[in-house]
């Protein structure tokens, strides 16, 4: 099959390493992965050099993790700007099965910006190449089990971003 498309691309195996900021990073399929403890829980860290020197991606990941409190706040603000109105007008309404098996309608309360932001929890940071950072946020049942990603295309600058509802 690969003769149809050319040579199969070899994925470079990355060695496990102990990083002074991010702790133990385990290499797997061209990606380094680890977990960092924060005030709000464990954050999964994923670093994919994506053809760039490993040191470049590690440097970007270190800058992101050193500024994680500010990036967390900025990411949650960006999600609120993008999705709070949608939550309050649509996503807080729905149907669920009651104990008897019948469908019943529900309406969750309106949320302020502060209440909405308090419901978002940073769960993962993905660094790809030399400029791409994606923050993953869990939001409980606010969006029926979906999560949000905030992707910065300009590294820790977060001036060129995309917010997406995932799942």
Q: Can you summarize this structure?
A:
The protein is α+β, with helices and mostly antiparallel strands.
What does this structure look like?
The protein has helices spanning 2-5, 54-66, 68-91, 113-118; strands at 17-19, 23-28, 31-38, 41-48, 93-97, 103-107, 121-128, 132-138, 147-152, 161-166. By secondary structure, it is an alpha+beta fold. The protein has an eight-stranded mixed sheet with strand order 1-2-3-4-7-8-9-10, covered by helices on one side. Strand 9 and strand 10 form a beta hairpin.
Strands ordered across the widest β-sheet: 1-2-3-4-7-8-9-10
Helix content: 25-40%
Mean pLDDT: 92
Report the sheet-strand fraction: 35-45%
Question: What assembly state would you assign to the polypeptide chains in this entry?
Answer: single chain
């Amino acid at each position: 099959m690969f003769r149809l498309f050319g040579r199969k691309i070899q994925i470079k195996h990355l060695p496990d390493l102990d990083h002074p900021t991010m702790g133990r990073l385990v290499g797997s399929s061209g990606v380094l992965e680890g977990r960092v403890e924060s005030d709000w829980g464990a954050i999964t860290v994923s670093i994919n050099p994506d053809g760039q020197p490993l040191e470049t991606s590690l440097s970007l990941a270190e800058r992101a993790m050193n500024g994680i409190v500010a990036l967390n706040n900025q990411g949650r603000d960006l999600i609120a700007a993008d999705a709070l109105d949608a939550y309050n007008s649509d996503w807080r309404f729905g149907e669920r099965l009651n104990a008897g098996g019948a469908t019943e309608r529900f309406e969750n309360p309106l949320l302020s910006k502060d209440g909405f932001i308090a419901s978002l929890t940073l769960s993962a940071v993905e660094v790809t190449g030399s400029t791409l950072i994606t923050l993953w946020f869990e939001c409980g049942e606010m969006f029926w089990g979906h999560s949000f990603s905030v992707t910065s295309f300009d590294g820790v600058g977060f001036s060129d971003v995309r917010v997406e509802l995932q799942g």
